[in-house]
Amino acid sequence: MLHRLFTGTLILAASLTLALTPASAFDESKYPDFQGQWKRKLGTVNSWDETKRPGIPQDPPLTAEYRNRWEASMADQAAGGQGNDTRVTCISNGMPRMMTILRQLEIFIRPEMTLIVFENNLPRRIYTDGRGYDAKDNIPSYNGYSIGKWIDENGDGKYDVLEVETRNFKGPRNYEPSGLPLHDDNESVILERMYLDKSNPDTLVNEITTIDHALTKPWKVVKNYRREKNAEWYEDLCTENNNHVMIGKENYFMSADGYLMPAKKGQQPPDLRYFNTTGN
Amino acid sequence: MAFTNRSIAALALFAALALPVLDATAHDESKYPDWSGQWRRPRGLATQWDQDKPAGVAQQAPLKPEYQKMLEWSIADQAAGGQGLDTRFTCITNGMPRMMAVIQPIEFVILPNITYVHFEAFMPRRIYTDGRDFPKDAEPSFAGYSIGKWSDTDGDGRFDTLEVETRNFKGPRTVEFSGIPLSEDNQTVVQEKISLDKSNPDIMHNIITIIDNAFTRPWTVDKRYRRDRNVVWFEDNCTENNHHVVIGKENYFVNHEGYLMPARKNQAPPDLRFFNAAGK
Description:
In chain A, 12% of the residues lie in helices and 28% in strands. Chain A has two helices and 13 strands. Chain A has a nine-stranded mixed beta barrel. In chain A, strand 11 (244-247) and strand 12 form a beta hairpin. Chain B has 280 residues and is an alpha+beta fold. Chain B has helices at residues 2-22, 65-79, and strands spanning 26-27, 38-40, 106-110, 114-119, 125-128, 145-151, 161-167, 189-196, 203-211, 219-228, 244-247, 250-254, 260-262. The longest helix of chain B has 21 residues, at 2-22. Chain B is globular and about 70 Å long. The termini of chain B are far apart. At the A-B interface, helix 1, strand 1, strand 4, strand 11 and strand 13 of A face helix 1, strand 1, strand 11 and strand 13 of B. Strand 1 (26-27) of chain A pairs antiparallel with strand 1 (26-27) of chain B.
């Protein structure tokens, strides 16, 4: 009897406690600690596969056609051009390249969505509310449309892995500054697995697999981000002091005193046919 | 009696066990106002600063004569096809306070130590609510450094108002597209009082006071935003399809065929002195 009463009291207490827990409370203890500022691993540059140098050492599984385009991009860059790298215009790097973390990023988790905030790109929204790709705001974008799923892989009652699939892109996009291209059809599918390193919770691992028609097979790389606990944020505005000037398909450079300059040897000046020369 | 004592002990034990589960890791959203959804300008309004007046001179900004002249010049230049003091055509951020005119919809994400304001076209604003003071060595920015404080003005146990002060700017910044200028000294202080309308929770008020050395007195406006619960987010990359090209201090236009064009009547073409004439 005493035992029954005690148990009853506990059940009552449990019910009361549950009722006291606000319906809208977000229980962060269910999610991994992704807080703070994440930077590229020390000693890495902004190559796609961080274990290799950018350019040819990446050894991507490109189709022959896209391999040729990539080589043309690198040759153009060697001659002073920008090749396939569109970042010169301050357009977003888009996915997957933005996950190289040119500048630091921040991740914050809410039950229905995980947000990735960058210093120099618009944020990524990873929806974890069970929606599908038929959502009405799923329109093509450089970031794509990301749907995620939390997984408790080790069964300890706490999520540890965020799996993300990203689709519905526009382009052109590339992986790294060398101009390593993605397919023009923009049908890329990017799969990510994000989790904290088991031996070092200040390392966030992002396994990224790209499936794309410019590739002969899915290409997986593993990125390691390091946590910076003393976070400082800057306002990185690409268009501020950007001295590149795009006119048509030509990239020019603007000198410190405001004169248009060729960006590569022998470059033609812009065609001024629309100017009234008598107005000069 | 013994049962009662045991029951009380059991309750106390359970409460003690349950409390730690609720505290440090749980973000109790019920303590904060419901600002979820997407916030837009009221229907029918443009992006003028004071929503109750037309843009430009009709705003009756309390400008000092010197800055009033700058505004009048800016409006005259825009009427002649120029951009006046409005720098947005270069895709630079509008910065504070103008970014709170909400050209595209915004989103508030409230966390205990920080409130984020997310934009479709700008990097996010971080409003720190962790009790910090303005840092002495922060890098000036267009968005400034924002410190906020939550208050429960009606004493119902739930925060309803976020008061924000923003300092530490760089420029040039304007208050609206007509070019209402802020002082070049960038000593602006922007104070905001953000809360839901008491009779309509789908209306948000942002009472914004600008204290600036271009003004004869502080300038306060009541900005209203309307909530859209059917949230649709777009990726607004300003530089994508931006046909404005700035060379030196001149703004030109690039037409759909990629030719440089004057942006106003009789505009001189750019000086091409750095191009090899033989290369023409």
